[in-house]
Design goal:
two-stranded antiparallel ribbon; mainly alpha; 45% helix
């Protein structure tokens, strides 16, 4: 049986944005009970960062800090996007918590100059594993404040979130080959079962 580290090396990135791919590192949000967490330790966190390309293979992290912050940040981001998807207002504690995290991330944004001209850059300590939450939070901010936030959807099969970039904006599943086919098979089975009654 594969370990989480092995699974994460080829982990599907179906969200269409860094923050959504981060939210999707648990399974399955459509069922009751405890979620299966693919990032359960520093090794898995490092592997996922490699998988997304945020962390270079040559980089070395110094595991320190409260690992629980990763799961807490992920859950907060899920709750924020779920409220947006469901078109409900964010609770005051949720909004306050999100803004505190965003403020921490934005404190690392600097203006840089190059041959092209001025631009923003996110500067943080690349040896600190928790600092990699900053680009994730900036990714969330970019989507939440953009017009295409209304195209963030939740897969009805697995509960993963994704940004619908399809031409007609009618995409239903995070992945048609996996979740789409699974739902079709379930509907077919139910029809067969009902017809045999």
């Amino acid at each position: 049986m594969k370990t989480n580290t092995e699974r994460l090396q080829n982990f599907p990135l179906e969200g269409g944005a860094l923050c959504l791919d981060f939210i999707n590192t648990v399974h399955d949000r459509t069922t009751e009970g405890e979620l299966y967490d693919y990032i359960s330790g520093w090794e898995e966190w490092t592997t996922w960062l490699f998988r997304t390309g945020i962390l270079e293979k040559s980089a070395k992290l110094d595991p320190e800090g409260d690992f629980k912050k990763i799961a807490e940040t992920r859950e907060m981001l899920y709750q924020v996007f779920k409220a947006v998807i469901d078109k409900v207002s964010l609770s005051e504690p949720l909004l306050k918590g999100y803004n505190q995290l965003l403020k921490a991330a934005n404190s690392h944004v600097e203006l840089v100059m190059d041959n092209v001209g001025p631009s923003e850059s996110l500067i943080f300590n690349e040896s600190k594993p928790l600092d990699y939450l900053f680009p994730i939070l900036r990714s969330a901010h970019d989507i939440l404040t953009a017009e295409n936030v209304r195209h963030v959807k939740q897969c009805p099969n697995c509960g993963w979130l994704f940004l619908d970039t399809s031409k007609n904006k009618r995409r239903r599943w995070c992945n048609m080959k996996t979740c789409g086919s699974s739902q079709k098979a379930k509907r077919y089975y139910r029809r067969r079962k009902n017809s045999n009654k």
